[in-house]
Design goal:
There is one protein chain. By secondary structure, this protein is of the alpha/beta class. The chain contains twelve helices and ten strands. The strands form three sheets. A six-stranded mixed sheet has the order 5-4-3-6-8-7, with helices on both faces. A two-stranded antiparallel sheet has the order 1-2. A two-stranded antiparallel sheet has the order 9-10. The chain is globular and about 75 Å long. It binds adenosine monophosphate, FE2/S2 (inorganic) cluster (FES) and zinc ion. The site of adenosine monophosphate has 13 residues, from α2 and β4.
Length: about 300
């Protein structure tokens, strides 16, 4: 196959786009995909301060790499979830990337926030699935770090596969309020929220893997050990099978939802949040989900301590 742009020998074939690229043209194509998403969805402008949430995986590091190359004002945010060797290795990958590229990095370690707040400990204390506890904690710290650091935008590395899998989960249960908020740009609905954007929402996991490989980005390949068996992985697998049978399925699923389905759901969007009585962050009840989680952990710990006394 020949490169779609320059007719040299293609190194990558993208069936969903009916295109192939040599290495230099692929790097050009990938950057242009990101630039198009940013411009097309009005995600941010060059003067704004971006906080880029980086997990150590290929998507978020590839995205940070592109944004830094494009000259945006970026700072990385790494959340230390406290999931044993997985967290240690991912932290190392992020720290090395930031150091090599001379980029600023902020780190928030859950267990340093208060005792018992590492994800496995929270999951055990509250008897929640680790991913559910983890999601609540991540969302809180993304929002809190962005507002505390005076950033304009929070950028995450969610890719097309993530968005398609999430859409499938939301559709299978017809979660109207989730469908209402599944968008590549979320505008703030509270003074302590910043704009949240996903510049890779139309870029597949395969495409970011190829970009990371070509750029020599050292990322953590392992999935989080808690992810195995999660519904999200099952949806990704189903979508990948559909994609093999009919290339472009994932792209059409997400794009057409955003064009035709999402606006109808957006009308049912819930009311604006108020201030959490615990932490002051936005909340849909007296206490936000994060404060409720932390209080549950703390009450279990004090009940345990008094039983031992
Ligand atoms: P995931 O929920 O693991 O699929 O990750 C989706 C996105 O959330 C990633 O691309 C990152 O932008 C962000 N993210 C996930 N885990 C972390 C973490 N530990 N620290 C910072 N950002 C993260
Ligand atoms: Fe949160 Fe695995 S439980 S990343
Ligand atoms: Zn709170």
């Amino acid at each position: 196959m020949k490169c779609t742009r320059c007719r040299a020998k293609a190194e990558v074939q993208l069936r969903a786009h009916n295109a192939g690229f040599c290495r230099p043209c692929y790097l050009f194509y990938f950057r242009r995909q990101v630039e198009r998403a940013i411009a097309g969805e009005r995600m941010f402008t060059p003067g704004e301060r971006l906080l880029v949430a980086v997990s150590g995986g290929k998507d978020s590091l590839a995205l940070w790499d592109v944004l830094a190359d494009l000259g945006y004002d970026t700072t990385g945010l790494y959340l230390g979830l406290g999931i044993g060797a997985y967290s240690e290795q991912s932290h190392t990958k992020v720290a090395q990337f930031a150091q090599r590229r001379g980029l600023a990095l902020r780190v928030v370690a859950f267990e340093e926030e208060a005792a018992g707040l590492a994800v496995p400990a929270v999951a055990a204390a509250t008897r929640r699935p680790p991913c559910s506890a983890c999601g609540t904690m991540k969302r809180h710290h993304f929002d809190a770090a962005a507002i505390d650091g005076g950033f304009d935008v929070l950028v995450t590395g969610h890719n097309l596969d993530d968005e398609a899998a999430r859409l499938m989960g939301n559709v299978l249960r017809w979660q109207k309020d989730h469908l209402a908020r599944q968008r590549p740009v979320l505008l703030p609905t509270h003074p302590r929220f910043v704009r949240k954007v996903k510049p890779l929402y139309l870029v597949s996991e395969y495409e970011t893997a190829v970009y990371a490989f070509m750029r020599g980005i050292d990322y953590i390949v392992d999935e989080c050990p808690n992810a195995a068996g999660a519904a999200q992985l099952l949806y990704k697998d189903v979508l990948n099978r559909l994609e093999v049978a009919s290339p472009g399925t994932k792209l059409a699923f997400v794009k057409e939802f955003l064009r035709t389905g999402q606006p109808a759901f957006a009308q049912t969007e819930r009311e604006a949040p108020r201030d959490c009585e615990g932490c002051g962050m936005p909340s849909y009840g007296p206490l936000c989900a994060y404060c409720r989680l932390v209080r549950e952990v703390q009450s279990k710990a004090s009940a345990g301590a008094s039983a031992l006394a």
